Amino acid sequence: MSDEDLTLNDMQAIVDDWIGQWEEGYWPPLSNLARLTEEVGELGRVLNHVYGEKKKKEDEALGDIEMELGDILFVAVAIANSLDIDLEQSFRRVMEKYDMRDRDRWTPADDT
């Protein structure tokens, strides 16, 4: 895989190609939701070890935040693909919602 920038559509195509090589194909959405929940839990564990009160055990390997986020992204893309959802369109819609809902909610940052 090259180092060029990837769009969400590119990521969806890569995941689709990868899953397409296996006869089993996409897992059902609820199974993927369980996977997503597992991956979010793994991210939570690493963040808690690094930034939280719960330190890791002496014999426990320190997790990789970047990899855990990548796992979450992979499963989210797989769910979208299995449901024929265009994530770029979905992301645009969500940002419009946030722009409308939260435009007066937060303190604007200084432009300095």
Reading the helices and strands in chain order gives: HHHH
Give the terminus-to-terminus CA distance.
Answer: 38 Å
The major sheet is characterized as: none
Q: Please, what is the oligomeric state?
A: single chain
CATH class: Mainly Alpha
Q: What's the pLDDT, averaged over the residues?
A: 92
Tell me the number of helical segments per DSSP (H or I, 4 or more residues long). Answer: 4
Helix percentage range: 55-70%
How many separate structural domains?
1
CATH superfamily (homologous) name? MazG-like
| Structural class category | mainly alpha
| Low-confidence spans | none
CATH architecture: Orthogonal Bundle
Overall 3D form: globular
CATH-defined fold name:
Helix Hairpins
The total of beta strands comes to 0
Beta-strand percent range: under 5%
- Over all CA atoms, what is the radius of gyration? 18 Å
Helix and strand topology:
Blueprint lengths: L7 H13 L8 H23 L13 H18 L4 H16 L10
Helix pairs in contact: 1-3, 2-3
Task: Walk me through what this model shows.
The chain is 62% helix and 0% strand. The chain is built from 4 helices and no strands. It starts with 7 loop residues before the first helix and ends in a 10-residue tail after the last helix.
